[in-house]
Amino acid sequence: MTIRLSDLGKAVLDTEYAVRGPIVARAAELEKQGHEIIYCNIGNPQSLGQKALTWNRQLLALCEYPELMERAPGAFPPDAIETAKAILSGTKHGLGAYSESRGVRYIREAVAEFILERDHIGVDPDAIFLTDGASKGVQTILRLLIGKPSDGIMVPIPQYPLYSATITLYEGRMVPYFLDEANGWKLSRPMLEASLAQAKAEGTAVKAICVINPGNPTGAVLDEANIAMIIEFAQAHGLSILADEVYQENIYLAGDEFTSFAKVLHQLEAKDVSLFSFHSCSKGFLGECGVRGGYFEYRNVPDDVAAQILKLQSVSLCANLAGQAATYAMVRPPKPGMPSHAQYATERRAILDTLKQRAVLLAEGLNRVEGISCNVIAGAMYAFPSIVLPPGRTDFDYALALLEQTGICVVPGSGFGQAAGTAHFRTTILPPTEKIQKVVDALGEFHRNYR
Ligand SMILES: Cc1ncc(COP(=O)(O)O)c(C=O)c1O
Question: Which residue ranges have their beta carbon within 6 Å of ligand 1?
Answer without folding.
Answer: 43, 133-135, 160, 162, 212, 216, 244, 246, 280, 282, 289, 294
